[in-house]
Amino acid sequence: MKVFNIRNKPCIILGDLHVPAHHPDSFEFIKALKKHYKNPLIISIGDECDLHSVSMHDKNPNLQSPKDEYEEVLYEYHRKGGLYDIAPTLQILTSNHGDLYLRRAEKFGLPQRIIRDRADIWETKGWKWYEEVLLRTVWGDIYLTHGRSKNALKLLNFTGAYGVCQGHFHSKFGIDYYSRSKGLDRFTAFTGCLIDENKLNFKYGSLSIERPQLGSLAIMDDGRPRLHKLNLDKHGRWTGKL
């Protein structure tokens, strides 16, 4: 488990991006958050890329081949104003989509030692990946994981943390508070996501009554959580307001 001491330092926790199926304004949104919080630690909650082409489930035949998807992800990471440009030292939670190529390698019996490092694959020297992260704040530790349980209170009690933050569940975006005898209330939070639900990658959820909630979470420099919704106008584009 990786521990980051963020006492008196802000942190931005990005919702699932699923590049290249991310919302077209998601990078501008992240850039605005970075500017607003002034030199924050930036963490991706996971599913930073989609990798639909190597999914273990049925694939949409109208989407890219593995080669084409890989090249599009690389382009979106490295273009001017892309994710690597905005966050060259991004810290990332391992996740079901982000790790699809490793799961494929396991399925076909390939030993991990012959698999290229993630940062090498994505040409992102400053990015690092962790299964779990603890944020050390003035009020206690905040536990971050991609998505261990929809029952966030159960996870909070299991970890004994001051707060718990997860992604993965695209329709869940919010903070719940639980009182304690001293100090700030404990909390659980879900980041929502930063996807474009109109992309074919998400056709599987088109009939669901639960819609994706677009946004991210910030831990302010006093250790308190704050939600930031990616508010859209009638054309489905970001309004530009945090």
Notes on the protein architecture:
This protein has 242 residues and is of the alpha/beta class. The protein has six helices and twelve strands. The strands form two sheets. A six-stranded mixed beta sheet has the order 1-6-7-8-10-9, covered by helices on one side. The protein has a six-stranded mixed beta sheet with strand order 5-4-3-2-11-12, with helices on one face. The longest helix is centred in the N-terminal third of the chain and has 13 residues, at 66-78. It is globular and about 55 Å long. The mean pLDDT is 94.
Short overview:
The chain is 20% helix and 22% strand.
Q: In DSSP terms, counting alpha (H) and pi (I) runs of 4 or more, how many helices?
A: 6
Quaternary state of this entry equals: single chain
The percentage of residues in β strands lies in 15-25%
Q: How would you write the strand order of the largest sheet?
A: 1-6-7-8-10-9
Largest sheet: 6 strands, mixed
Mean pLDDT: 94
Helix share bin: 10-25%
* Parts with pLDDT < 50 across at least 5 consecutive residues: none
H/E topology pattern: EEHEHHEHHEEEHEEEEE
Number of strands: 12
- Structural class of the helices, strands and pairings? alpha/beta
Radius of gyration: 18 Å
Shape: globular
Task: Report the end-to-end length measured between terminal Cα atoms.
Answer: 31 Å
